[in-house]
Amino acid sequence: MRRRSRVLAAWLFLAPALAMIALFTVVPFVQGILLSFQSWDGVSLDTPFVGLDNYRYVLHDTQFWGSMKNAVLYGVVGLVVANAVSMVMALAVHRARRGSAFFRTVFYLPGVFSTVVVGVMFSWFLDPNIGVVNQTLKAVGLDGLQHNWLGDPKTAVIAVAAVFVWYHWGFGFILFLAGRQDVPKELYEASSLDGARGLAQFRYVTWPGMSHVTGIVSVLTLLSGLQIFGTVQVLTNGGPAGHTEVPTLHIYQQAFQYTEYGRAAAMSVIFGLCLIALACLQLWASRRLGGSTDSRTEKGR
């Protein structure tokens, strides 16, 4: 009887949260899937069923698949570059004897700003006429390196990726720092007695000890890179000529600029399935990597 009353009380406490999730997550998700099989302009009450026409359009939309390539690029840059920078900073701050609190604040600071603030700030920094970057190059006599960083297709993607790394490294830095502090000191003392130093300690002690944190940060950073929106919209709005466009921006334009809500819903379904598949693959790879490093560590002991 007591167990039933406890279970009932638990469900009563969970009911408001479950209702909110159902209302604002599950219902829109189902409606989005249904809308992907319909045609709607966002105003009329008529939503005719069009079958797979929206999906056929998406499969032949070269602009959408080009934006998917850009999203993969940003995701890989976030996964490799942003995580590597975050981990290096976390390890350096952990070893610092002085000023660690200051560096924690400075390294995490970019993540405090909103995407709009970051976009406007770097739009000014990279402006070809009055931007800080070009003005600094001119001041030091490197006029030949001045460039229209966001207007040239060759540099626009790199510039957006660099801004993404700067904006997201604080999140990974905090988690990596917490993960490094959770690695027992005894493991480092034991490895030192065995003659392990530097890279050997990182490979056999630090990396296995932080494998679970690394997996979580990798998945979240990868998904952030794939779902990038605000930074691209403010910096380039997908330009020049669509070279920096990403799926989220393309879906937004299809729905709110061209009023093709059915096509936008079909793109969202395809993009969402790709995100789920990549997240599952990344989690599987992280667990395999974490398991193999843990087994090597146990064998080494």
UniProtKB/TrEMBL annotation:
Alphabetic keyword roster: Cell membrane, Membrane, Transmembrane, Transmembrane helix, Transport
Question: How does the UniProt record describe the way this protein sits in the membrane?
Answer: Multi-pass membrane protein
Q: What InterPro entries does UniProt report for this protein, alphabetically?
A: ABC_transporter_permease, MetI-like, MetI-like_sf
Please indicate if the UniProt record lists 4Fe-4S as a keyword: no
Q: Tell me the ranges covered by the ABC transmembrane type-1 domain, including all copies.
A: 68-282
Q: Which Gene3D superfamilies does the entry mention?
A: MetI-like (1.10.3720.10)
- List the subcellular locations: Cell membrane
Q: Which residues cross the membrane?
A: 71-93, 105-126, 156-178, 264-285
Q: Could you state one GO cellular component term attached to this entry?
A: plasma membrane
PROSITE patterns this protein is in?
Answer: ABC_TM1
Q: What processes in GO biological process is this protein linked to?
A: transmembrane transport
Annotated PANTHER family: ABC TRANSPORTER PERMEASE PROTEIN, DIACETYLCHITOBIOSE UPTAKE SYSTEM PERMEASE PROTEIN NGCF
Give the family, as the similarity comment puts it.
Belongs to the binding-protein-dependent transport system permease family.
Q: What name does UniProt use for this protein?
A: ABC transmembrane type-1 domain-containing protein
Give the organism, scientific name: Streptomyces griseoruber
Lineage here is:
Bacteria, Bacillati, Actinomycetota, Actinomycetes, Kitasatosporales
